[in-house]
Design goal:
Elements lengths: L7 E4 L2 E4 L11 E4 L2 H8 L3 H8 L8 E5 L4 E2 L11 E10 L21 H7 L1 H6 L6 H4 L17 H8 L11 E6 L6 H7 L5 E8 L2 H19 L14 E2 L9 H30 L7 E7 L1 E10 L2 E10 L1 E3 L17 E3 L10 E3 L2 H7 L2 E3 L8 H7 L2 H11 L9 H4 L36
């Protein structure tokens, strides 16, 4: 826990933990939060993790290290490599939704994607031989395909665990959300984004699943053996790493890129399933559904950012943060005047703002922002405060929100909300019996 007295405010909603707070910190650590949230944040684990990152060699849950000798760690940005989200629109307007809108996962047909191709090519593999939209690549970070991916660097156990979850949202906090535009605060920007009042959109949030977790675990062990030759000793075992400038690529580079390709490709398959669902449910071409922008929030990239007024190349790590570039040439032509589209999924029952990157963010946070609403509690602590059934009852019966999840306990720590279409009563939600494995909290009388 970091004492409140050790934090100083440097700007509105910006707080700094001095480098003297912990032995080994090379730079101060900064927290972006409202003052009323700060106390809870300082009592959680995230400041400890932040200070550990500030102690990494080369530094001069977003961190920038020197290029090319900054440290690269297999799990420095969490295990779920390239976990991210894509916002798709337009679906029919709110009033055009049918009175019932529920269903189960689609099928993945073997042969529609070879594992090696997915790991090597990324989102382009899902588009090449399927009805995916090539425009999705332009509107995805890294073009939906990070460099240096090598399927051979992903070992057999990781492939087996990952491909068993292909074309699913996966475990953890991964969700699919359906909602509509309620308020337009910046109509000019909204028009560029193609968003209109009452327009329905879908948010797909998924990652590289158990494949990436196994990749990170495999290479963490290997990296611990390698790093002793560089004379570095991390304050946190999970930040084990070696300089990016090490002879040849560090052991995890090719495997991380392949895991990132899996995440991009898997999200494209899910987007494809949504397009197929539009055609089936509404008898309208799924090709009209477009990706507003695809972002990832557990990433390592090489970027240029100003340091003392001059652009300097840096290794940027974003853990639980997403890239949010301001207006400029580094974006697709459509978004250069407005800044990069980004969204911060709200807590359960609240709205999810769709935002645009600004130049100020480039200056103070390396073009980054939070990837979801601010967290006051850890998932473990949240589960202690409220049970799955109680939360389900509050969301469904008091707020009129329809929730579908794999387990009751998961609801207490997972963001998942769907506003019920017109004609659905909030008290028509059936809570499954204990032990029900159908993965459904369905509406009564729903087939």
């Amino acid at each position: 826990m970091v004492p409140r007295a050790q934090c100083r405010q440097i700007a509105p909603c910006q707080w700094e933990i001095p480098a003297t707070t912990r032995t080994g910190m090379k730079v101060p650590a900064r927290v972006f939060a409202r003052e009323d949230m700060l106390e809870g944040i300082l009592g959680a684990r995230s400041p400890e993790q932040l200070m550990s990152v500030a102690a990494l060699p080369g530094i001069g849950k977003v961190a920038a290290t020197r290029w090319p000798d900054g440290i690269l760690s297999p799990v420095g940005i969490r295990y779920d490599i390239h976990c991210g989200a894509g916002l798709l629109w337009p679906l029919p307007y709110r009033d055009a939704l049918p009175p019932r809108l529920a269903g189960r996962g689609g099928e993945f047909l073997p042969g529609t994607a070879e594992p090696g191709d997915m790991l090597r090519v990324g989102a382009g593999r899902a588009i090449k031989n399927g009805p995916g939209d090539p425009r999705d690549l332009e509107r995805s970070g890294a073009g939906g395909r990070p460099d240096k991916a090598d399927p051979a660097a992903v070992w057999g156990r990781a492939k087996k665990k990952g491909f068993g979850l292909l074309r699913t949202l996966g475990p953890g906090n991964h969700v699919g959300k359906l909602g509509w535009v309620q308020v337009l605060y910046a109509e000019t920007t909204a028009a560029v984004f193609g968003l209109r009042d009452q327009q329905v959109a879908a948010l797909i949030h998924s990652g590289s699943q158990d494949l990436a977790q196994q990749v990170a675990t495999d290479y963490l062990k290997r990296m611990m053996e390698v790093m002793t030759g560089y004379g570095t000793h991390p304050v946190d075992r999970k930040l084990t790493g070696v300089p990016l400038s090490a002879p040849g690529d560090p052991p995890c580079v090719n495997a991380r890129a392949a895991a990132a390709n899996f995440a991009w490709s898997n999200r494209e398959f899910i987007c494809d399933a949504l397009r197929q669902a539009r055609q089936k449910v509404f008898r309208q071409s799924g090709k009209s559904i477009r990706l507003l922008y695809g972002v990832a929030h557990t990433i390592v990239t090489i970027e240029e950012h100003p340091v003392d007024g001059s652009p300097v190349k840096r290794i940027i790590r974003r853990k639980a943060a997403t890239r949010t570039f301001g207006p400029g040439q580094h974006l697709p032509t459509r978004y250069r005047p407005t800044g990069q589209p980004v969204w911060t999924p709200g807590s359960m029952g609240s709205a999810s703002p769709i935002l645009a990157g600004m130049q100020r963010g480039m200056e103070i946070a390396f073009g980054s922002c939070c990837h979801v609403a601010g967290r006051r509690l850890s998932r473990h602590a949240a589960k202690k405060q409220i049970s799955g059934p109680a939360l389900l009852a509050r969301l469904c019966r008091e707020q009129g929100i329809v929730v579908c999840a794999g387990s009751l306990s998961g609801i207490a720590r997972k963001e998942a909300w769907l506003r019920p279409p017109a004609g659905i009563k909030a008290d028509s939600v059936r809570i499954p019996k204990k032990g029900n494995k159908t993965n459904a909290f369905k509406l009564r009388n729903d087939p």
